[in-house]
Design goal:
single chain; 88 residues; mainly alpha; 3 helices; 0% strand
Length: 88
């Protein structure tokens, strides 16, 4: 049986601006240590709503999970930059 190459992965979708509120960093600095704050709350809710709607079939909600993941990556990169600058 000859070996064949797997098909290339689908292109990564491009998302609009994420839902992180502009004053989130200020609120994050003021929060209590134990309080959980999620800058990607809208994306998180959309992905959970999609799961509920599709009987928890994760494959049907891949777009929402990608959007949430990208939002979290952006947020973590921003926090890292702020920590390096001594602002967080």
């Amino acid at each position: 049986m000859p070996l064949t190459r797997p098909p290339p992965p689908p292109p990564k979708p491009v998302f609009d601006e994420f839902s992180t509120p502009p004053d989130f960093n200020d609120n994050f600095k003021k929060k209590e240590t134990t309080k959980y704050m999620n800058p990607c709350q809208v994306e998180e809710k959309q992905s959970m709503k999609c799961l509920d709607k599709n009987n928890y079939d994760k494959s049907k909600c891949e777009y929402f999970f990608l959007q949430y993941r990208e939002c979290k990556k952006k947020w973590l990169a921003e926090r890292k930059k702020l920590r390096q600058q001594g602002q967080l």
